[in-house]
Amino acid sequence: MEKPGDKMNDFNVMDQTIKATTIKTGKYLTFTLKEEEYGIGILKVKEIIGMMPITSVPGTPEFVKGVINLRGKVIPVIDLRLKFSMDSIAYSERTCIIVVEIDAESGTVFIGIIVDAVSEVLNIKKEEIEESPAFGAKLNMEYILGMAKMGNRVKILLDIDKVLNAQEIKMLDKAG
User: Fold this and answer.
1) Residue 7 domain flag
2) Which of 8, 27, 48, 170 is 20 to 30 A distant from 38 in Cα terms?
3) CA 99 to mean position of chain CA atoms
């Protein structure tokens, strides 16, 4: 026998599934780290800039490179390679900073992420996106929205709001 709230709960679960699929479908700015390709929803991207002087902030984790002054606004910058436990490399003329807007508990935070190179903006359809594979309970992969199958390549779609945890965002917000 159904309880009065069961149909509403089923509706909410279905609604969340539809929203998750809709959020994944759309335009993504793609970029490379190491030899892997990643994508961030274009609506999260505010600006792409070349490398510029970064002022280091003492007492921050290794992946936090420091802050930049972008037209009078101080923006914290992280090296996404280091955040993802990849080897550090010397920056080149293709290295750039993508300024993204992150939704945090305190509101909207702007953060610069250093990537090896920006590739292109792609329109990714829902049928090209697969759920992220399960790597086991010990690995936190909630920042991966899904995997986009593009020809014989796979692009890892990131939920940029979840790449950093709440404590890291608070720390960066204070640094900025």
Assistant:
1) no
2) 170
3) 11
